[in-house]
Amino acid sequence: MKLTVQVRLVPDAVQASALERTLPAVNDAATWVSTVSFDRFGLKGSVRELRKLCYGELKAQGFGAQAAQHILKRVADAYTTLRANIRGGNLGPPTSQRRRRAESKPIAFRPHAAHTFDDRCLSWNHDAQTVSIWTLDGRIKNLRFACSPGALKQLAEHRKGESDLVFRNGKWFLIATIEVPEPEVFEPRDWVGVDRGIVNLATTSDGHNHQGRRLGRYRRWQARKRAELQAKRTRSAAQLLKKRAKREARHAAHVNHKVSKTVVAVAQRTGRGIALEELQGIRDRVTVSRDQRARLSSWPFHQLGAFIAYKAKRAGVPYLEVNPAYTSQMCPVPWCGHTARNNRPTRDTFRCRRCGFAGPADVVAGINVRDRARSAWVFVNRPDPAPV
Ligand SMILES: [Zn+2]
């Protein structure tokens, strides 16, 4: 499977100024190529056609053959992605403002957008912990990088293909692609069922909760600030809003990483697989107040699931998604199984109307997910019936 490893570059003053000159110049050039492409071909420029039109000029600006080729490819790829997004409806219907805006002007590249380097423009010396990289000031050699011993080992053993040069918060990074063999999925002894929910982001069938109160407070605070800013309707307020939205997304990703890491570690340690509900059900299975609904739709549950799936795969932990229907209304007692809306007297509690079994609603949902995974796994792995 493909993974990425990030290292921080530690350039000296001369190296830093070469990098600082190069990245914006590359992006400037990409924006120029993009304009040419848009004027001639709309959203349909190809590398071959763009090379005819732009290669000479790029060379004249000091880009080497490889660097020029990368710029052309990056522009063509950007339009391919845009076309796919339009086709897939990701920018809305043909009349939507977003889509019309995207179709009406060339793609522009931010001055510090990441740029891709392949092995001809970038080479790694793992022992010395340095790279040599192409820049507009010529090739920089002995550019030091810092990373953990684990990351260094992975780089040395598995790095393959392209790396991205990234400038973030005043620091330079390389994000390298590594290709590691996929670990074999072990035969699970049992399953951990995970319920993703509003009060607790993730609750396992073991009864463990992940996050909750403090996070809710954080998000309510963010929502209040957002409302204040929205009320202002000024340009600077809009910019602040955008910044805040980015910070929120980063925070959510951080929390999702932490939660998924813990869930996968527990499963791995106990030799169990992980089961999640398929997501489409999560929005309509409970009625919630307006405040709660805002929190539900704003939390990236899908991301949490994707992180768990990915980390499970990386660790060889079996992963299953099960049908989410009624997981929060069904009694988990094997001989009962009574399913009814009024098994949930309140949002947080479960009490079976038939057998009286009671417990926290999210733990019950987690147990139901686990039980569905148990039967699904048996079904998947049942040997084929002998031919008659
Ligand atoms: Zn029951």
From TrEMBL:
The Probable transposase IS891/IS1136/IS1341 domain covers: 179-268
Q: Which UniProt keywords apply?
A: DNA recombination, DNA-binding, Transposition
Classify the source by domain of life. Answer: Bacteria
Signal peptide position in this chain? none
Q: Cas12f1-like TNB domain: from which residue to which, for each copy?
A: 301-369
- UniProt entry tagged with the keyword tRNA processing: no
Q: What is this protein called?
A: IS605 OrfB family transposase
